[in-house]
Write the structure tokens for this entry.
Amino acid sequence: MASFYIVRHADKENGEFNNPLLRHNDQPISQKGREQAQKLCAFFVDKGISKIYVSAYQRTGQTAAPLAGHFNLAPVVDERLNEIDNGLFDGPTTEEIALRFPAEWKAFRERQADFRFPEGETGKEARDRIVAFLNEKQEAHGNENTLIVSHEGLIRLLMCHITGNPVYNRWNYYVDFCGITELTYQVDYGSWKLIRFNQSC
């Protein structure tokens, strides 16, 4: 049975790294991140990865680079793997956010219902795009082991889908840098099965 491996990107640099083509800060991975990315090779060396997908942010491509070299694969960028768009919550301090967007800040803090980040996404919208991506790739090459490098928020939303939790419970999951999640698709049941979550490499 083929597996889909979803990995959070490696540790990233601090600071501002503006990319006019992307909504949010486009940090590269740090020296620590490069070491983490290399360690992924030991886990995946015998996994027979046939496809690698990354988000549009450079830290995911850099995380995948050692494995791409090992398997002689060119990672494919898919923007559906981008982090959840938290809109105008990105940048200001928590005090500024609470003052400018009191309703959204209240929903964010209470975690009892989904909400839209100002000029951004809802949890459901972000969840639906990662689920749509997975379903599409399972249909296309579900018999091949596939590696996906994405972001913590999106992986947490995927876990809500897999475990039947509402999207506002996503903060109950934690994903380490380079944490490995493995899924297989149960054809007989038309659903995804969780094999491992946030395994360290």
